[in-house]
Design a protein that fits this description.
The complex is a heterotetramer of chains A (348), B (226), C (548) and D (121).
Chain A: H1 7-13, H2 20-53, H3 69-98, E1 105-112, E2 115-119, E3 125-127, E4 129-133, E5 138-144, E6 149-153, E7 158-162, E8 168-172, E9 178-184, E10 197-202, H4 204-211, H5 220-230, H6 233-236, E11 255-257, E12 263-265, H7 268-276, H8 300-312, H9 322-325
Parallel strand pairs in A: 1-5, 4-10
Antiparallel strand pairs in A: 1-2, 2-3, 5-8, 6-7, 6-9, 9-10, 11-12
Helix pairs in contact in A: 2-3, 5-8
Chain C: H1 30-34, H2 39-67, H3 77-96, H4 99-112, H5 121-143, H6 157-161, H7 166-193, H8 206-238, H9 251-284, H10 292-305, H11 321-349, H12 358-381, H13 383-389, H14 393-423, H15 429-456, H16 470-500
Chain D: H1 19-41, H2 47-67, H3 75-101
Helix pairs in contact in D: 1-2
């Protein structure tokens, strides 16, 4: 539905803003554009006037001028002050963009060479498509399976690289229902240009209807629980009393004392590293070289599911998924059209 | 400033004075400054690897300690001693060139090259030792001593081979330059009025020794007793 | 003036009338060119080779723009990825970094400071051979199929997932880096040790100051990209390495080490251009440069501060936001010296007697376009708008405004300004004015639409794009063809002028500077007698007015 | 700053170090190598690295001061020597500042945009 608009209309449509942050950043954008236009006009007109006014005329000698420290200091300090305004304004918005609110809905994204795999808390999965309710802050926790990708939604003015080996987060609050472009903006190989998709913002009611069904294999937490038992994690990580390995209940987002004296926060990245390369950080009071490396045996989605399950073990933290708060909604999975990969793109 | 381009009498009997320099001092000063500028590029060239080392040592503290246990510390110490001796003989060679003592130049240059070759020999032995124990990062890397650091240890061994390998390449280039000096000394080219090449290659050799003085504790000593 | 030593006309190939001896006709034969240690001849060797590489890179650019005329493009994605990567590598490492220092810098720096040659002539020739070796590897990589990692060689794609000729291209760039190091080394030692008596630091032409600062950056930065590429090469060979996330390596560390050089590299590219513009503006306004000390100090300031800002390339690639804030602040700090230069050039024209020869037209274009390039850089050093624009065509437009609108335009200004000095003959002025205008128009038509594409969010390095961006891309491609033609015209009339242009005397522009006091083209040793400098640079007349 | 040094015809340039000093420096370096190897066997925890680097730095400055002749060379050469190390330190400190500050948690300041839930004013 995007393509059939006249070129001029879509020219402005594409620059629309559909997130709270987006409008905040756009104000700063127009301030910078104003400064650029003013300075450019000043310089171009200045050159034209000086060139014309002081052009070579017979009998007129150029008067030699040494220079003036006062002017020099003036046109160093003044531009720097204007730049400081840009710096402060930009840094403030950037900090806001980097700190997701506590009540954000969490969605997990896995970047893989040339597709985006999206996992919702209720277990539903999609490829190259993201559905979010309007007005609800959404936090994306992103991982990459191979090279560096970059999850970018121009209409929301959000973008963050997805670096393999760790988690990157990104958050936004959609304000306008509609369909917006999703791009990969870090070069990642042949089909880099086809690693695109659409973000659909739905009204609250439509979204509830759309996401009601949940995933075939149960919610993310249930899938994590199955993995937790299948891979034998439960044999050492006993949930309620001290086994040979650290207790995972009430662990998420709590400080952890390490064997070498450092304390780190048990955030997503810590949990991921401790699953894949457990001996990178040994918890104080525990022996190294007990838990095997799972690097290469678990896919990124499985790690996400395990972490979702571990998070569900610490109900205190609000960011755990809705799924785990209420009892899992058991509805016979309605026959839902299998999400073909490029349903929307095929409309073009 | 000498009014004519080059003081005529000096140009004839000093064949080593390049045409665009006014006098020998300016030539030596320029050469020394040029060499030090080149050494800055070498400092930053090795600096890239040292930065990576600093970052990964702080990130994977224990894995690096485990890898130091595998290193042959006595051999590393001997190698450091060998390189320090080669630095001494190189300094003596430069001194002999400044005084124009042909025999002393030849002996000290030969001594420097001997120590250099010994160092490379020991290095080759260590590499062979690592090859046998499958410690070269890549598909057939094995690390039985501390299997839990299997992944992170490969970073340290990669850095080990990158740093000591690049250092060895610089040693080989240094040996090539020393042979060039040996031929010149043999032909008694270097004397009190012209010893610039000896001093420049001496600076280069001392720099290679300086790099090893840092490499030895970082790769061999830190944490090897845990 | 002592009569110039004239060459006995006994030579068979001597031209009919008595031609004075100069560096061009002093010796003949290809050996005299390939084994020369004369800085002027080496400058011409470089001029020839970088022009070749410029047109090679330019062809890739034209193919890229042709591909982007339609949303799904003409070539397959693999071919497109190789085209833009090779365009980047050839242009950055084989044209932008070496061009002005190796050609005009090599030719003019010794003459401007009153020396007979650079400090190490043989190392100067060695640097050209190393450049040719590096270019040979790059051309080999192109011939065998090119590299598809972009000019940035980001890991883990370049080390693990790319199956193109990364090793050959990386080695070519590694070798070319040493050519840049040797040129920088030569310039630094020459300026320190080879200045004529009376040529104190305060009397150095600003062209020399700019090249001294560039030499510092070349020395302090280039080895770091050399080691980065060596580590990428080793990682490709050993299938595992320190940037490999599968063993705990951090791809962002590669970006740190790479950009530690690659941001100062953009100052290696722009500073010599600024040096040229200071000379051209001062000559064609017949005026002393306004605030000489501040322009010299700003060159050194850019060289030093340029090393502290590389993190603004990585604001959203996983760098911690605290480091991001520090880099953002320092990036604004490094913008101040550039702004000071632009204002000083404008002030130099104040109360001058300005003539509109083609070098001056290029200088006007430089000031305008470089200002736009610099101002759009502020968007990218502001943290919040960087999030909006990183990886889009806004970045492409920004750096092309500074590289093509800044450096290439300054290079053309320098070529035209010193062409009579290099060849002893004047080029065709009307053609030059036309070419300058065409460059300005073609350039703006190519890159202004890309700013808008960037704001709309079109990602860079995309072989296919959503159809609503097509109109702007077609505009940009049209501009690219105009720009391509505009770059060919100077090559034609300058080469024509070299052989058939009217002969000129020592100082066709009546400019100030030691290079205008020697013959054009100069004799092999530049000066019959080492000059003694008694006046400051740009002494177009006694100082009559001091403002504030 | 020095323009062309005047054309004094003094034969040798620079200072010729005595054999005694060279051997003395050599001996100190060998002793220091033993010290650093021995010190590594001690259990000093974090201090091990600091000690090893301190010894290495003394050895390196000895080599540079006497062997490389920084002691007798011009202040320009010394400046270049220090500039190289300074740039290396800049690269190391700024790069590691990124790694150090990655783990920090950000408490939104009351005046900041982040405090107001990130929505625009």
């Amino acid at each position: 539905m995007l393509a059939n608009l006249s070129p001029l209309a879509d020219f402005f449509l594409a620059s629309e803003i559909a997130s709270k942050q987006g409008s905040a950043i756009d104000e700063l954008w127009w301030f910078e554009t104003a400064v650029t236009v003013v300075m450019t006009v000043l310089i171009f007109v200045g050159i034209a006037i000086f060139a014309y006014k002081f052009r070579k005329r017979p009998g007129v000698q150029a008067t030699q001028i040494e220079g003036s420290t006062f002017l020099e200091i003036g046109w160093s300090i003044f531009p720097f002050l204007v730049m400081l305004v840009m710096f402060w304004w930009g840094a403030d918005l950037f900090y806001a963009a980097q700190t997701p609110p506590k009540d954000a809905m969490e969605v997990f994204i896995t970047g893989k060479q040339w597709m985006w795999k999206v996992q919702y808390p209720n277990g539903y999965r999609e490829i190259d498509a993201l559905h979010v309710p309007v007005g609800q802050p959404v936090k994306l926790t992103m991982a990459s399976e191979d090279v560096i990708h970059s999850f970018s939604i121009p209409a929301f003015r959000v973008r963050h690289d997805v670096v393999p080996g760790t988690y990157d987060t990104l958050w936004f609050t959609p304000t306008k229902p509609g369909t917006y472009h999703l791009f990969c903006t870090e070069y990642c190989g042949n089909q880099h240009a086809h690693m695109i998709g659409y973000v659909t913002v739905l009204e609250r009611a439509d979204w509830e209807k759309w996401s009601g069904g949940g995933g075939a294999g149960g919610s993310l937490t249930e899938q994590g629980q199955q993995l937790f038992t299948q891979n034998g994690c439960s044999t050492c990580h006993l949930l309620d009393q001290q086994g040979r390995c650290p207790i995972l209940r009430n662990l998420y987002n709590k400080p952890v004392q390490l064997a070498d004296g450092r304390t780190v926060l048990a955030d997503d990245a810590y949990l991921r590293e401790s699953i894949l390369m457990p001996n990178a950080k040994i918890v104080a009071g525990f022996e190294p070289n007990i838990m095997p490396n799972f690097q290469g045996q678990l896919s990124e989605e499985q790690v996400i599911q395990l972490i979702a399950y571990i998070k569900s073990l610490s109900p205190a933290t609000p960011t755990s998924q809705q799924g785990s708060q209420q009892p899992p909604v058991v509805i016979a999975p309605k026959a839902k059209p299998a999400p073909t990969v490029k349903t929307i793109a095929s409309i073009q | 400033m000498a009014d004519t381009l080059v003081a005529p009498h000096e140009a004839e009997h000093d064949p080593h004075l390049r045409h665009h320099f006014a006098n020998a001092d300016q030539q030596l000063d320029s050469a020394t400054l040029g060499m030090w500028t080149f050494l800055i590029t070498e400092v930053l060239f090795f600096g890239g690897m040292f930065t990576a080392y600093v970052i990964y040592r702080s990130l994977y503290h224990d894995a690096f300690a485990a890898t130091s246990m595998v290193m042959n510390v006595p051999l590393g110490g001997i190698n450091t001693g060998v390189l320090i001796c080669s630095s001494l003989s190189m300094a003596l060679a430069v001194r002999a060139a400044q005084l124009g003592q042909r025999k002393a130049q030849i002996i000290s240059l030969l001594l420097t090259m001997f120590f250099g070759v010994v160092f490379l020999g020991v290095k080759a032995y260590e590499y062979h030792e690592k090859y046998i124990e499958h410690l070269i990062p890549g598909p057939n890397f094995q690390f039985p001593e501390a299997p839990q650091y299997f992944h992170n240890a490969q970073i340290l061994f990669f850095l080990y081979f990158a740093m000591t390998g690049m250092h060895a390449v610089h040693m080989i280039i240094g040996l090539g330059l020393l042979t060039f000096l040996l031929i010149g000394a043999y032909r008694s080219k270097y004397g009190p009025t012209y010893f610039t090449p000896v001093e420049m290659i001496g600076l280069y050799w001392h720099f290679v020794d300086v790099v090893w003085i840092f490499l030895f504790p970082l790769l061999y000593l830190i944490g090897h007793t845990k | 003036m002592a009569t110039l030593a004239t060459r006995p006309t006994g030579y068979s190939d001597a031209p009919s009338e008595e031609e004075p001896l100069n560096y061009l006709n002093a010796t003949h034969g290809w050996k005299s060119w390939l084994l020369t240690v004369d800085h002027k001849r080496i400058a011409l060797l470089y001029l020839f080779s970088i022009t070749l590489m410029f047109f090679m890179g330019g062809t890739f650019a034209i193919l890229v723009r042709l591909h982007l005329t339609s949303p799904n493009g003409l070539f397959s994605p693999e071919v497109y990825n190789r085209l833009f990567s090779m365009h980047g590598i050839v242009m950055v490492f084989f044209f932008l970094v070496p061009s002005i220092p190796a050609t005009l810098g090599n030719f003019l720096l010794p003459i401007m400071i009153g020396a007979k040659d650079l400090a190490f002539p043989r190392i100067n020739l060695l640097s050209w051979y190393i450049y040719v070796l590096g270019a040979a590897f790059a051309i080999y990589a192109v011939a065998r199929g090119g590299v598809d990692t972009g000019w940035t060689f980001y890991t883990p794609y370049s080390t693990t997932y790319s199956n193109s000729y990364v090793l050959a291209a990386a080695f070519g760039v590694f070798v070319a880096g040493f050519s840049s190091i040797l040129t920088g080394l030569n310039f630094i030692v020459t300026v320190h040790k080879m200045r004529a008596p009376g040529m104190s630091w305060g009397r150095l032409p600003l062209f020399v100051w700019a090249h001294y600062a560039t030499g510092l950056i070349q020395i302090l930065g280039t080895p770091v990209v050399a080691i980065a590429l060596v580590l990428v090469g080793m990682e490709r060979v050993m299938h595992v390495g320190i940037f490999d996330p599968r063993v705990g390596g951090d791809p962002i560390l590669f970006q740190h080490i790479f950009w530690f050089y690659s941001h100062p590299a953009v100052y290696i590219m722009i500073l010599p251009g600024m040096g040229i513009i200071s000379e051209v503006i001062s000559c064609f306004s017949r005026k002393r440069v306004f605030g000489y000390d501040f322009i010299a100090a700003s060159s050194m300031g850019i060289a030093v501060l340029g090393f502290l800002v590389w993190g603004h390339h990585m604001f959203i690639t996983g760098e911690s936001m605290y480091t991001g804030v520090v880099f953002s602040f320092l990036s604004f700090f490094v913008a101040v010296p550039s702004a000071v230069k632009v204002f000083n050039w404008m002030a130099t024209m104040y109360k001058g007697s300005v003539t509109f020869d083609s070098p001056m037209l290029y200088a006007f274009a430089f000031i305008g376009l470089f200002t736009i390039g610099g101002l759009t850089g502020l968007y990218l050093s502001t943290l919040a708008t960087n999030v909006t624009l990183h990886g889009t065509y806004f970045v492409v437009a920004h750096f092309h405004f500074v590289m093509v609108g800044g450096m290439v335009v300054a290079f053309l200004a320098g070529l035209h300004f010193w062409w009579p000095k290099i060849t002893g003959r004047m080029y065709n002025e009307p053609w030059a004015k036309f070419a300058a205008l065409l460059v300005f128009l073609g350039f703006n038509l190519t890159f202004l639409p890309q700013f808008i594409l960037g704001y709309l969010g079109m990602p860079r390095r995309y072989s296919a794009y959503p159809p609503e961006f097509q109109t702007l891309n077609v505009l940009s491609s049209a501009g690219a063809t105009v720009l391509g033609v505009a770059f060919i015209i100077p090559m034609i009339y300058l080469t024509y002028a070299w052989f058939f242009g009217p002969k000129v005397g020592k100082n066709p522009w009546e400019a100030k500077g030691l290079e205008w006091e020697v013959a054009s083209p100069p004799i092999t040793l530049n000066f019959e007698k080492t000059p003694t400098v008694t006046e400051e640079a740009y002494n177009y007349g006694p100082v009559e007015e001091v403002i504030g | 700053m020095s323009t062309l040094t005047d054309n004094k015809h003094e034969v040798t340039h620079g200072h010729i170090p005595k054999v005694g000093t060279l051997v003395a420096v050599w001996a100190t370096l060998i002793v220091l190598t033993f010290c650093t190897t021995a010190a590594s066997y001690l259990e000093l925890g974090e201090f091990n690295i600091v000690l090893a680097m301190a010894i290495a730095l003394t050895k390196v400055s000895l080599v540079a001061w006497i062997f490389m002749g920084v002691r007798y060379s011009t202040s320009l050469t010394r400046l270049f020597c220090i500039a190289g190390l300074l740039w290396l330190v800049i690269m190391m400190i700024v790069t590691s500042s990124d790694y150090v500050s990655r783990g920090w948690q950000y408490q939104a300041q009351p005046w900041s945009h982040a405090a107001s839930g990130g929505d625009s004013k």
